[in-house]
Amino acid sequence: MSTIKSFEELEVWQRARKFVLKIYNLTKSFPKDELYGLTSQIRRAAVSIGSNISEGFDRRSDKEFSNFLAIARGSIAEVQNDLYIALDLKYISEDEFNATYGETKKIAKQINGLMTYLKNDNKKYIKQF
Question: Which of 10, 27, 126 is nearest to 86 (CA)?
Answer without folding.
Answer: 27
